[in-house]
Design goal:
single chain; mainly alpha; 11 helices; about 65% helix; flat
Length: about 400
């Protein structure tokens, strides 16, 4: 019995040894394969290093050649005959233009226009057109349109949202793909010599003109943002006569870049807000448009309105301080100015939205009254909070929606 047990133990040991030998053989084979692969990778690395060294040498040689060519083009561009660059090769925008007589900028009342720069004193400047009369000062919106809080809007909104936990789906705007592109460096450098020559010409010849613009920007002080719009339009028109505004002005360290940029920023921001306010105020619903499409169009306009106002209010404190320091009007950013007017303009959207839903609820084809009712009340609540209340017409539209949606209409 004991001998048989020992025999079985030896057989188990032998089988285990055979298994270990087999695993060892597999491991050795793998090591050999990895060793060969390692040698092949080392050879590939050496080959790639050689290619990199060769490409670096070629690149350095090419850079040296391009730099010499660029310097030769620069040197020759300041002579009367530029070798390698013909007049036909020079873009029209970089050719020397005849001396431009600057038009005087639009001015606020009771301001004496400064003298024109020396470079244009010999020319006969056209008479400056009389500036248009400034628009009447904007009155405070408080008191011009009665807006009050309507508790019923909040009560109905909360009662409906408690019954229906459905949340609005918000779609994320897809990112705009960035298209990568490359340029031919040799051609770029060859063509750039004429461009740089034109910039140098503007710097040398238009000095007095730019000093005149510097004086105008530094002394610009307006009380009405509409006057800033006119001034920026004039300034951009004058600077457009330069080959490259930024490239030329950087040679004039006294250029008031901070104030010029702030004037443009204020003008463009006001113009964009004014355009949006006009679009909202003149909005009209199209009865022939499908309901879903019409409601989405109104909501998209409300989204733009709220986003624009949010951007202004978020930066209002710091921006208004900067504008005050630079003598740029800033009151239009307050709730008593254009911003407040834009908030009130959203009431028109609320009225059109509620009227459209009320009309749908009254039709025989309406199949989802409860969801549609909730959608209308939710939007009414949104505008109510944004505008700070409803006016009489909007309250009337809300009461109509409430009666029809709750089935209490006589």
């Amino acid at each position: 019995m004991k001998a048989e047990h020992e025999r079985m133990t030896e057989e188990e040991d032998d089988s285990e040894i055979q298994l270990l030998k087999k695993e060892l053989g597999v491991s050795l084979a793998k090591m050999d394969s990895l060793e060969k692969e390692n040698q092949e990778l080392k050879q590939e690395v050496s080959r790639l290093k050689g290619q990199i060294s060769s490409l670096r040498a070629h690149n350095n040689e090419r850079k040296t050649m391009l730099w010499k060519k660029f310097q030769l083009s620069m040197d020759s561009s300041y002579t009367d005959a530029s070798p390698g660059v013909t007049r036909a090769d020079i873009p029209e925008s970089t050719m020397e233009k005849p001396m431009k007589v600057p038009n005087p900028p639009p001015r606020p009342n009771s301001v004496t226009p400064p003298s024109l720069p020396k470079e244009v004193k010999g020319s006969k400047a056209p008479p400056a057109p009389a500036p248009p009369p400034p628009p009447p000062p904007s009155k405070s919106l408080v008191g011009t349109r009665a807006v009050r809080r309507v508790p019923e809007v909040m009560e109905l909104y909360r009662s409906l949202t408690r019954r229906d936990a459905h949340k609005e789906n918000r779609s994320n705007s897809a990112g705009t793909p960035v298209v990568a592109f490359t340029k031919n460096m040799i051609g770029e450098i060859e063509n750039r010599s004429a461009y740089l020559s034109a910039i140098k010409s503007d710097v040398d010849r238009r000095g007095e003109f730019i000093k005149f613009l510097i004086k105008e920007v530094e002394s610009a002080a307006y009380k009405d943002i509409a006057e800033v719009e006119a001034f920026v339009k004039w300034l951009d028109g004058e600077l457009s006569s330069l080959v490259d505004e930024r490239a030329v002005l950087k040679h004039f360290p006294q250029w008031p870049e901070r104030k010029a940029d702030a004037l443009r920023e204020a003008s463009f921001s006001y113009r964009d807000l004014k355009s949006l306010e006009s679009e909202v105020s003149s909005f009209e619903d199209n009865p022939k448009e499908p309901l879903t499409q019409a409601l989405r169009r109104i909501q998209a306009l409300q989204d733009r309105l709220e986003q624009s106002i949010d951007n202004v209010e978020r930066m209002r404190e710091s921006t208004s301080k900067r504008y005050r320091d630079l003598q740029i009007p800033w009151e239009w950013m307050l709730d008593t100015g254009l911003v407040g007017k834009m908030k009130l303009s959203s009431l028109r959207l609320a009225k059109e939205y509620m009227k459209r839903i009320t009309k749908e609820l009254q039709s025989d084809e309406c199949s989802c009254e409860e969801n549609l009712m909730l959608q209308g009340v939710r939007y009414a609540y949104r505008v109510h909070q944004f505008a700070g209340g409803f006016d009489a017409e909007t309250i009337q539209a809300f009461e109509k929606l409430k009666k029809v949606g709750l089935g209490t209409e006589n």
